[in-house]
Amino acid sequence: MVSSWFRTLMEVTDAYAKRSYHFYFSHSPTVTHKCYPSCLTYTKPSSTAPVSENPFDYKGLNPLEIPFHAGWLRYLLVGHPRENERQMIVYRAPCGRQLRSMHEVQRFLDRTNSQLTTDLFCFDPSVVINSEFRAEKTLTNIADISYGKENIPVPCVNSVDNEVPGYIEYVAKRQPIDKVPLLQDDNFVVCCDCTDNCRDRNKCACQQLTAEASSLTNPSGMVDSQAGYRYRRLAQFTVGGIYECNAKCPCDRRCSNRVVQHGLWARLQLFKTSRK
């Protein structure tokens, strides 16, 4: 249950209405239950079919909005003035369970065999999910310079003059060039044998390669056991590189160590500046 010192005034982001609004939340008792895959079922009031939970069905959308389309809610809770109005984020799953940390989200997704991944959730109160930066002045604009090759559009905006950038061949996957061959021999590819989608980094051979590589850039030569992804995000700069899982590994796309290979999900914008 949410801590009692929080006020009942909450801000909820409504992905469908594209707005934020306030309402008074009734602290009705939560029904105790064990979560199963059925806890993910959500049907819009205007439909009879459950909504899709596959993130790739929402390509082009802000990735942090995808859970809302799958029936989740995100609450911004504000504390009492005597608590310096401390803020925290709480997610509400389709079954009503409230989750207050990335660890709880990960555990819920595992138990329900959800198609969602932890990088679609954000517990930073300063992040407004449905807020998108737009240039105040746009003279020329290309809606998507990747021309559909990325999971989300990559707009190109010019607010300086009327110049339109020339066409570029956007490449979303690695592509060899002359005299730079790619090592693709399966005999040289390390793989793991994880059965938990690589949740335990200490048992994942691929994540251990990332940890071992951290010693090469450490002046003391010590291994950073925390190097690499945490909840599918980089918590710190990793100079030694990231060794992601590959096609020989038994884990699926929800693996904690498969991020870059799925393409761009973070929202980016290419823009011209008045000086180089």
Automatic annotation (TrEMBL):
Gene Ontology molecular function: any one: DNA binding
Keywords attached to this entry: Metal-binding, Methyltransferase, Nucleus, S-adenosyl-L-methionine, Transferase, Zinc
Chief location category: nucleus
Flavoprotein is among the record's keywords: no
Domain Pre-SET, first and last residues per copy: 190-263
A GO CC term attached to the entry: nucleus
Location of this chain's protein in the cell: Nucleus
Pfam families per record: MBD, Pre-SET
Span of domain MBD: 58-128
Record GO biological process: heterochromatin organization; methylation; negative regulation of gene expression
Regions annotated as coiled coil: none
PANTHER family in UniProt: HISTONE-LYSINE N-METHYLTRANSFERASE EGGLESS
Record protein name field: Histone-lysine N-methyltransferase eggless
Organism: Echinostoma caproni
Taxonomic classification: Eukaryota, Metazoa, Spiralia, Lophotrochozoa, Platyhelminthes
